């Protein structure tokens, strides 16, 4: 979740998310799941 917040706050692409938030692909995958209708963050 923190990685998504960081990404949107800075406007950076997913590949620039610091490793402290996990891999960029994990951050993107979580975003992709949550943007789909009917899904909500944990």
From TrEMBL:
Residue stretches making up the Insertion element IS402-like domain: 1-39
Pfam families: DUF4096 (PF13340)
Domain of life assignment: Bacteria
Protein name: Transposase
């Amino acid at each position: 979740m923190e990685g998504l917040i960081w990404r949107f706050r800075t406007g950076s692409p997913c590949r620039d998310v610091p490793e402290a938030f996990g891999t960029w692909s994990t951050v993107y995958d979580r975003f992709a799941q949550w943007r789909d209708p009917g899904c909500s963050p944990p």
